[in-house]
Amino acid sequence: MHSYLPFEKPVVELREKIAELKSFTEEKEIDLSGEITTLEERLKQLENDIYGNLQPWQRVQIARHGERPTTLDYINELFTDFMEMHGDRLYGDDEAIVGGIAKYKGRPVTVIGHQRGKDTKENLKRNFGMPHPEGYRKALRLMKQAEKFSRPVICFIDTKGAFPGKAAEERGQSEAIARNIMEMAGLKVPIVSIVIGEGGSGGALALGVGNYIHMLENSTYSVISPEGASALLWKDASFAKQASETMKITAPDLKELGVVDEMIPEMRGGAHKDLAQQAIYIDEVLERSLHTLEQQSTDDLVQGRYTKYKEIGSLAGENAASSTE
């Protein structure tokens, strides 16, 4: 049984009521099919009302769900022969970023992603998915290796942000992020980045300079968390809900703004409801993206990335004005 979020309580209670009636029907051999059918129709309508009209803060809550699938979950579903690689050859290994070589539909690829834990013990091991500089340097090492052997790079983004601690700063956190962004911009192989949970600040951008940026429907991608923005704007982190509504951090908003290329649909209620089906949704978009990119020359790949990021933030009015000049 999946844990549920506060706004899902009416749906969960109605499902339990239906299950109770079905169990009672079987035990007592009393025909309650009419009542059950009525409740099932009501449940369907309730699900449409709740999941069909999710507010930004509700999407933030789903993106942070403790049972939400992680990078390793999707690697196991989408790829074969995954061989994880460790270390940055400079300082050490960072468990908050996983990466290695795998096969995708028979062809070799490099897969890299943030990795958080699903319980306290694993979260401590993974530093709650917040990488140190060695994590980003490990990712860059794997990207450069992919370039050397002409392998596409697939990145899964899922982090609150890079770790802001003293040790990380001493080891060059900002430089590591900046170098990844610079190197990814000029990488001569296809890069597809997919936001699968939270995409927070520079910690996400260090894996986010792709030819294609896709987002799961209930993921978020932002320069700062709603709590952080609330603390800055209103001097009070309790206004996070209001901040999330103004920040345009959800997949539908970012798709409309042209920041992401495609919004990948999720299972009703979130990706954690059915990992296998969610992987199928990702697979469809990933295969199509790689097929398109693999037809392009290395120069076109780099130029396409440059053009993509140059156009982000362009106002429709400015574009219209320039086209008439």
Overall description:
The chain is an alpha/beta fold. The chain has 2 domains: 8-53, no CATH class; 60-311, Alpha-Beta Complex (2-enoyl-CoA Hydratase, Chain A, domain 1). It has helices at 9-28, 33-51, 56-63, 71-78, 120-125, 133-148, 166-170, 173-185, 201-205, 226-234, 240-247, 251-257, 275-293, 298-311, 316-324, and strands at 80-84, 97-104, 107-114, 153-159, 191-200, 212-216, 220-222, 262-264. Helix 6 runs parallel beside helix 8 (173-185). The N and C termini lie far apart (60 Å).
Query: Overall 3D geometry?
Result: globular
Largest sheet: 8 strands, mixed
Rg, alpha carbons: 22 Å
Task: Provide the low-confidence segments as ranges.
Answer: 319-325
Count, helices: 15
Function: Component of the acetyl coenzyme A carboxylase (ACC) complex. First, biotin carboxylase catalyzes the carboxylation of biotin on its carrier protein (BCCP) and then the CO(2) group is transferred by the carboxyltransferase to acetyl-CoA to form malonyl-CoA.
InterPro entries: Acetyl_CoA_COase_a_su (IPR001095), ClpP/crotonase-like_dom_sf (IPR029045), COA_CT_C (IPR011763)
Family: Belongs to the AccA family.
Pfam family, one: ACCA
